[in-house]
Amino acid sequence: MVRFIHTADLQLGMGRRFLTSEAQARFTHARIEAVRTLGCLAQAEACEFMVVGGDVFESNQVDRQTLVRALEAFADVPVPVYLLPGNHDPLDAATLYRSPLPANVTVLQTAGVHPVAPHVELVAAPWTSKRPLTDLLGSACRALPPAPPRTVRIAVGHGAVDALSPDRENPALISLAVLEQALADGAVHYVALGDRHSTTSVGSTGRVWYSGAPEATDFDEVDPGNALVVDLAADHVSVTPHHVGRWRFVRKAFTGDPAAIPPWLAGLPQKAETIVRLDLAGAVTLAERARVDAALEEAAPSFAALDVWDGLVVMPDALDVSELGLSGFAQQALDELQAADDEPSRDAISLLYRLSRGAA
Amino acid sequence: MRIHRIRLRNYRGVDEHEVVFPAAGVTVVQGDNEVGKSSLAEALDLLFDYQDSSTHKAVKATKPVHKDVGTEVEAEIEAGPYRFTYTKRFHREKATVLRVTAPRPESHTGREAHERVLAILDQAVDMPLWRALRLHQGVRPDQADLSEQTSLAAALDTASAGALAGDREAGLVELAKAEYDRFFTATGRPNARLVDLGKAEADVADRADSLRRRLADMDQDAEHAASLVTRIAELLDEVDEQRQRVADYDAKWRAVDTLLRDVETARAKADAADAEHRAALEDLSRRQAMVEAVERAERRHRELAAEHDRHRPALDAAKADLETAEQRLTAAAAAAGSADQALRDSQADFTYARDSFDLATMTERLGRVLEAQAALARLDAALDEIRVGPAELEAIEDAHLAVVQARARVEVESPVVEVEALRATRVRIGETVHPLEAGQTAAGPVVTLVEAGEDLARLAVRAGREGAQSAAALAQAEQALAGLCAAAGVADVAEAKAAAAGRRDAARERDTLVARLHDDLRDLTPDRLAGKVDRLRARLDQVRLTRPGPRAEPLDFDTARRGAEEAEARAGGARDVMREAEGEVARKQQALARLQGQAELAEREVELARRQVETARADLDADRFKTPDGVLAGRVEETAKRLSQAEAAAQQAEAAADKARPDDLRLALDNANKVLEKLVAEQQGAKDTCTAIRAKLAVLGEQGLHDRLAEAEAEAEQRGRERKAAERRAAAAKRLYETLGRCRAEARQAYVAPLQAKIEGFGRIVFGDDFSVELADDLRIRRRTTGGVTVDFDQLSMGAREQLCVISRLACAAIVAADGGVPVILDDALGWSDGRRLEKLGAVLALAAQQAQVIVLTCLPERYRHVGSANVIRLG
To answer: A60, B701: Cβ pair inside 8 Å?
Structure first.
């Protein structure tokens, strides 16, 4: 029985364009700190080593500062760390894995079996280019003789699995059938996958897993922020997800209920590490529009990012108009703007509302 | 507002005035300039605007000059529902009293009264309009009118609250304008801020694109490197394979190489034998050549000697020819000498004949000259004798005429003495003695003396004084004539005439002689002509003396000339013969010289050929001594044999080598080597490229392009948002500002329409039915049209402008009359308008007064006598 940490898709150095430079700096820092968190987890859970299933770095061209800090974080991990080059950081001519690495860190540079400890072997399928033309992991596992007695083998790969991916044209798609065959043959006992940022068990064996990214990277991820602690033997497997991520991507749509927005925003925890996208739609009155604007303006600084996709349509009601209390030509102008019903006119009405309150 | 009554007391120069305004119609307040009618309007301002305690200069100015009393103003006014009497006293015993009678009685004093009136006016009266509608007579009425026009516009703008909305709406327009100005320039284009936002976004997007491209390039490089690595692995095998191929060809080539070397050796031997054989042949042919050379030299020597001998007879013949020619020349020279002598003689003859002819001619000329000279001398002597020239003749004739005239006068003037001889006697009358017979009479002029008979009597008749003078004149004339005749050597006039004619004939003859003399002398003098004759004669004598031998005298000049010409021809012919002989001699000399030269040359050549024969013979002998002829022939035979053997061996070796196809093998080996080189080069190139790409990527990898791209993309996103937000705000501001502006302009236009209609209604009364105006947004009259002619307001005459100002005020007053209205006060206006217009304006005033209170202050009431409904109040 061996216990190790399975993680992947750290995407160190990832930039998000909707972040301000301040938030971006914290976001980058948080991803590096996730490495230390994983180190703590390894110690706490008495893991023997850590396997990272690809996309350790966001790119081979990450900033030198990011690289140096990341390597220092890995050096702080109290167990050996095995890094697999993925599609974001392939082992090509531009690879950043030529840099001197900490003693406890090993890059799985060649495809095939790597003994890492007594009775523990890794079967690696590193990416050597951004567009491989074959199923790398399948190639490594196909026709692999069964593991020696009392030895557990962990296949480490990166990429989409055919069972989950609809992209049949991709030649690098990993064949689940091959993996399950290798599992059945006893050639491997666990398949540690990277690429999918949501924690996912693939197939029915319970031995093929995507660990998911330890820090979220986008709004569309289902269950990010986890790392897996795996207990493995030839005849036993148990996989325990541990939540390690601190950042959250939250997306929320509001349609025609502007009053609900402020309380919902206020209720979000850890705002400084939360990236919010609001999809606003529906008709609102001038007064509501003004309240929404004020609420968003007030809330924005709390969040790492507050991205508003504003589809609200302003429909002034009688109350708005009476509140404006316009007469003569100004009322005439308001009537015309309402009749026009296009974006500049609606904005003009809001502006008129704002100006008239200022002018009152 | 309606003013019912105004009372002034101690107001500037006015002690007390009270004016009660009738309830309807136009009120004309008439008074002289100083009676204070303008004070009526001014006093209302004083009353409304200043507290009784005010020390404003407008207030101070109302104080009477010579009285220390308070100035009092009281007005009874109706404003909206209010009717009140308002009294203020300034300067002394200051007081303010307000008595309101409607809608319900009120009473206030002091400051409270002031405040209350302001409140009532504010509530019920449009005060700016009230001020605007007053028309003051200024120093320059037109200027005052125009400036008032501006405040009219302002007043009307505010007065139109119903249509144009209020201050708040006007403020909104200002705010919208301010918002619009944040994004747009004065000309309505996006301003620098908006443009810069777009530029900033584009810049960042460009930066991101550039970084993206560089990253894509790096990816491409990485892929290229990967493909190179694969290729390098392949090349390892290919190079090994090729090396083996090269080694195989090389072994085969070494075997062929031995055969080729054998061929080379055999061929070298054959070449050596060939060279020896050639040398032997050459030696033999050289010997033969030497023998031939000796023979050639001998032959040449013989030929040249024979040639030399052939020259001699020709030389001798040439010498003989020369001698003959020389003899012929001598004879020709002698003939030419005698011909020349004959020529000289005949020329001398010709000269002699010519000289003889000349001598005869000249001798004849000289004779004629001498004869003419003698005749001239004779004539000159004769001419010297005759002293009557043309001038002398003229003088004598004139003097004769004077005598005749004097005589005639004496005869006329002198009394005539007629003496009758009683007997024969002699009577002398004057100088004339008349012998008389008895009975005869003698008559004569009485001059001096009449004597009758010698002894008989002497009668002295004295002429009168005139007669004496005439006689004296006659005597003087006769004396002058006698003097002239004596000088000319003649007796009287007739003789003088004859002498003058003789002199003329002699002169003519002389001229003829002189001409003839000139003909004979031509350019010579007689002496030189004589000299010439002498010289010719001497020369001829000389010829005669010196001529040798007897010789017939040439007959004449022509014969002599012909002889000379013939002699010359003969001498010419002799000279030609001689020259020909000379030429012949020269030619023969040349021919001889040429032959002599040739002979010498041939002699030298013969000698040379002889020496060459000797040399050639010596060389041949020496060579034969060294190698006899037999030895040479044997050597040729021997070397020929050796050559044929060596050639056979060489051909055998070549045949063996050809069988191994060395060319094909060589090509294959070279090709294999080249392929190998190419593969190695490719391998090295791939490695180098790979290393270069790695190095480049390593360097680029240090630049953190990914992070920079992420940063640029984030910034681009931010900039994009800012730009979109700004554009959206700009669009909103533009929409709002433009919509508000347009609606306000439309509202204003809606307000302008009724005012325009009113102005035009009044105006047609004054200017005619085709009168119309165009109003600006600020309600000013911009243009006026009458009779189809449109003129800018500023271009109108002073009178027309003044009339329009009045009309527009009345129109305003009429329009707002329904809302309570304000009075229109015209203070001495219409000073620029003529009587006809005044009449029509009067009608307008009357019409307007039906709706609004119209008060006219004037010192010239006749201006307003056409106002039918006028109530005239006289001041002072």
So the answer is: yes
